[in-house]
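Quick review question:
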């Protein structure tokens, strides 16, 4: 077998092998990291509300809005198995899940606007 044939066979096997890997493995880890960051943002906002720290509220609300805007992308078909604790209902009612993510996005933007305006009552 020539070097070119061996190279082609190895390249084909690599491409096919990669295509067969569960795409969900990386996305599950990514969404876990994003949810952890989201929880950290929520804690930071909770502390900042009492202190009237609008800069922190603004920054963290923006992070939450950014995550909420792309959240459904981190739940592709097939990512419901493996090392995940995501509920099956996400995929069973993906439209509802997407609507909830959009509502989260809108709430974060509302909080962001209140923080930018320095309105502590609206921010709460």
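Suggested answer, residue by residue:
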């Amino acid at each position: 077998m020539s070097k070119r044939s061996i190279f082609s066979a190895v390249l084909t096997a690599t491409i096919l092998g990669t295509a067969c890997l569960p795409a969900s493995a990386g996305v599950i880890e990514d969404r876990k990291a994003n949810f952890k960051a989201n929880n950290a943002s929520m804690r930071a906002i909770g502390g900042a509300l009492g202190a009237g720290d609008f800069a922190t509220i603004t920054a963290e609300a923006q992070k939450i809005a950014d995550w909420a805007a792309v959240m459904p992308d981190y739940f592709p078909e097939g990512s419901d198995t493996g090392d995940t604790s995501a509920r099956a209902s996400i995929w069973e009612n993906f439209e509802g899940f997407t609507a909830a993510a959009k509502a989260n996005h809108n709430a974060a933007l509302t909080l962001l606007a209140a923080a930018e305006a320095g309105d502590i009552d609206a921010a709460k």
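Why it works: The chain has one domain: 24-123. The chain has a mean pLDDT of 84.
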